[in-house]
UniProtKB/TrEMBL annotation:
Entry-linked SUPFAM superfamilies: Putative DNA-binding domain
Molecular function via GO: DNA binding; DNA-binding transcription factor activity
SMART domains (UniProt xref): HTH_MERR (SM00422)
Coiled-coil features, chain-numbered ranges: 115-142
Top-rank lineage group of the source organism: Bacteria
CDD domains per UniProt: HTH_GnyR
Coiled coil listed as a keyword: yes
Domain HTH merR-type positions: 25-93
Record keywords: Coiled coil, DNA-binding
Record Gene3D superfamilies: 1.10.1660.10
Protein name: Mercuric resistance operon regulatory protein MerR
């Protein structure tokens, strides 16, 4: 994280005002370490226009607090099982509508869809578990019939 500190002194008839501005900036390695992802992952998100870092005079990527927040949202969306295209759409909706209404509505829609997919997958896994349990019970019974015990 890079802190840029600017001190401005204004003197107007013995009145002194001091303003201090602190901007949070991040280099790619710092973001990668903080979020436990590779720098390649971050560059890939940049290629997809999910992140839009500024460039320093030496052409290094400089990420702002906005990029930091976006990366957190991207990774949370990935953890929930959203595609990068869905995540990009949800993030883009906020930029179209600063009230966040469109983004919230779309996120709810995608979230409800994802819950249905998870429930379906859970049902499939329960069925698979049941089938495997039945198979193991059958195999154990066959083993006992042969006069052998399970080791």
């Amino acid at each position: 994280m890079i802190f840029l500190e600017i001190n401005v002194n204004v003197n107007d008839k013995l009145k002194v005002e001091i303003r201090r501005v602190v901007l949070c900036m991040y280099k790619i390695r710092g973001l990668a370490e903080e979020f436990q992802v590779t720098t390649r992952t971050i560059r890939y998100y940049e290629e997809l226009n999910l992140l839009t870092p500024k460039r320093s005079s030496g052409n290094q990527r400089i990420y702002t607090k906005k990029d930091h927040v976006r990366l957190r949202l991207i990774l949370r969306g990935k953890r929930y099982g959203f595609t990068l295209e869905e995540i990009k759409e949800m993030i883009g909706l906020f930029e179209e509508d600063s009230t966040g209404t469109k983004q919230l509505s779309r996120t709810i829609l995608y979230g409800e869809k994802k819950i249905k997919e998870i429930e379906c997958r859970m049902s499939e896994l329960e069925q698979l578990k049941s089938e495997m349990t039945d198979m193991l019970t059958d195999l154990k019974a066959r083993l006992c019939q042969k006069g052998l015990s399970q080791k």
